[in-house]
Task: inverse folding
């Protein structure tokens, strides 16, 4: 498993947490930051998946 997949998954979790905290305290900036981090994590996870596929081929 590529380390990008692990780091990407961690970013998704961290982003979800930021979104939840931002919503609960009414901080739109924190919520938007969390959404961006989630997207970044999903992309990084996908890149790691592609690397794994290429390596296995």
Result:
């Amino acid at each position: 498993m590529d380390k990008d997949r692990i780091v990407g998954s961690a970013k998704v979790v961290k982003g979800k947490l930021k979104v939840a905290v931002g919503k609960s305290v009414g901080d739109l900036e924190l919520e938007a930051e969390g959404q961006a981090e989630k997207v970044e994590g999903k992309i990084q996870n996908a890149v790691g998946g592609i690397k794994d596929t290429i390596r296995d081929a």
Q: What stands out?
A: The mean pLDDT is 96. The radius of gyration is 14 Å.
